[in-house]
Write a structure and sequence with these properties.
- This protein is α+β, with helices and mostly antiparallel strands.
- It is 51% helix and 9% strand.
- It contains seven helices and five strands.
- The protein has helices at residues 35-45, 66-82, 101-119, 123-134, 140-161, 167-194, 219-225, and strands spanning 16-21, 28-31, 48-50, 57-59, 86-89.
- It has a five-stranded mixed beta sheet, with helices on one face.
- Helix 4 (123-134) packs antiparallel against helix 6 and helix 5 (140-161) packs antiparallel against helix 6 (167-194).
- The longest helix has 28 residues, at 167-194.
- 14% of the residues are buried.
């Protein structure tokens, strides 16, 4: 009895949906999928359709609190998986992760980064550490700047709506702008360090050389000059 074997596997997951948070607007958005996936996003995650530069996409309402954003994103991702749709869910939106897991992972990452910086033996290894800190968009400082900008925007809007003085929010924005400028300066330092050549490194100090000893005059000549 012969068994027919197929050379290639069959994949029944035909659609792919990404659920993530837009760093500029802080909106939770979903990209990809067909009309069936759109229906699941709308019914289980609170998403609405919106026009985009590359076609329609889905997002949650602007006024949705953060905890409801995460709950809706997690519920939508779970429902899509059950429907056979492949999903990438931003870990920061996943409510099923262990409490404090993100904070502990961030602390471990920062600790490992500090160890790498301490163990760096040349400019290129220093540049690699600075890349993690200040790389555009994905570096630690740019992401921190984006979080602060989001904080400033909502704080200012809330203060103006309540008729309060947004002076503290403006101070935060000034400090954030300074942090962004320093991030750019660190990137410039990183670029110079990455271009450093081994020959450009500071040479190791050499041991001081001693002058060769002068030949000693004969003992009889020395005694003669002293009048002995």
């Amino acid at each position: 009895m012969t068994v027919d074997r197929e050379e290639e596997p069959r994949f029944f997951v035909l659609e792919y949906v990404t659920i993530t948070r837009d760093p500029r607007t802080q909106l939770v958005v979903a990209i990809g999928g067909d009309e069936r996936a759109a229906g699941i996003l709308q019914t289980t995650g609170g998403f609405v359709s919106a026009p985009g530069p590359r076609g329609p996409y889905h997002r949650q309402p602007h006024s949705l609190p953060v905890d409801q954003q995460r709950a809706g994103a997690t519920a939508a991702a779970h429902a899509l998986l059950l429907a056979g749709v492949s999903v990438h869910l931003d870990p920061s939106l996943n409510t099923l992760t262990a409490p404090g897991g993100d904070r502990q992972a961030a602390q471990r990452y920062l600790g490992q980064l500090a160890e790498r910086a301490h163990a760096a033996v040349d400019d290129r290894e220093v540049a690699a550490v600075l890349t993690e800190i200040a790389a555009p968009h994905q570096g630690l400082l740019p992401q921190m700047v984006q979080a602060l900008i989001g904080t400033w925007a909502t704080w200012t809007q809330r203060s103006e709506t309540a008729g309060e003085d947004p002076a503290l929010a403006e101070q935060l924005m000034n400090t954030t702008s300074s942090l962004s400028r320093h991030s750019c300066q660190i990137r410039q330092i990183r670029d110079h360090a990455a271009r450093a050549h081994p020959s450009a490194q500071t040479p190791a100090p050499r041991a001081p050389t001693t002058a060769p000893a002068q030949p000693t005059a004969p003992l009889t000549k020395r005694l003669a000059t002293r009048g002995v």
